[in-house]
């Protein structure tokens, strides 16, 4: 996991068994239109992703996604995003967290703890 700020298109990075990279990009675009994110990804992040050339790229956004906006994002980030299922909008993120309440419990208060309470 990388710090907040310019990360060159990477928020989380991992490696699969054969050493190929998997990159997860998180976008907090809750007050922007779907089209704004699509345009930004096409113009700004797609070239960065192509330069990184990960085996797989996943995108998480704080805004809801429609099937059409997911299709456009997949096309903008092909071949790194394999399917629309590699794109998570707010509802998918919430759904995944509901399936894993231990994650929510483990991060409650994240960022509000002092060193003495960690």
Write structural notes for this entry:
It is a single chain. The protein is of the alpha/beta class. It has one domain (12-111): 3-Layer(aba) Sandwich (type ii restriction endonuclease, domain 2), CATH 3.40.1560. It has helices at residues 34-52, 67-76, 90-99, 101-107; strands spanning 12-15, 21-27, 56-61, 87-88. The chain has a four-stranded mixed beta sheet. Helix 1 (34-52) packs parallel to helix 2 (67-76). The longest helix is centred in the middle third of the chain and has 19 residues, at 34-52. The radius of gyration is 15 Å and the shape is globular.
| Separation of the first and last Cα atoms | 18 Å
Extended strand count: 4
The name of the CATH topology is type ii restriction endonuclease, domain 2
Report the β-strand fraction as a percent range: 15-25%
Q: Based on Cα principal axes, name the global outline.
A: globular
Radius of gyration: 15 Å
Oligomer: single chain
Total tally of structural domains: 1
Q: Biggest sheet: strands side by side, in what order?
A: 1-2-3-4
Helix tally equals: 4
Helix content: 25-40%
Just name the CATH architecture. Answer: 3-Layer(aba) Sandwich
The largest pleated sheet is described as:
4 strands, mixed
The CATH class label is Alpha Beta
Describe how the helices and strands are arranged.
Layout: E1 12-15, E2 21-27, H1 34-52, E3 56-61, H2 67-76, E4 87-88, H3 90-99, H4 101-107
Helix pairs in contact: 1-2
């Amino acid at each position: 996991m990388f710090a907040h700020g310019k990360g060159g298109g990477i928020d989380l990075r991992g490696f699969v068994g054969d050493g190929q990279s998997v990159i997860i990009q998180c976008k907090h675009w809750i007050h922007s239109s779907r089209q704004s994110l699509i345009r930004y990804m096409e113009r700004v992040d797609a070239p960065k992703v192509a330069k990184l050339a990960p085996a797989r790229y996943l995108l998480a956004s704080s805004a809801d996604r429609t099937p059409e906006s997911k299709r456009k994002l997949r096309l903008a980030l092909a071949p790194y995003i394999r399917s629309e299922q590699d794109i998570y909008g707010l509802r998918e993120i919430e759904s995944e967290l509901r399936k894993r309440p231990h994650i929510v419990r483990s991060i409650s208060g994240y960022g509000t703890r002092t060193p003495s309470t960690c």
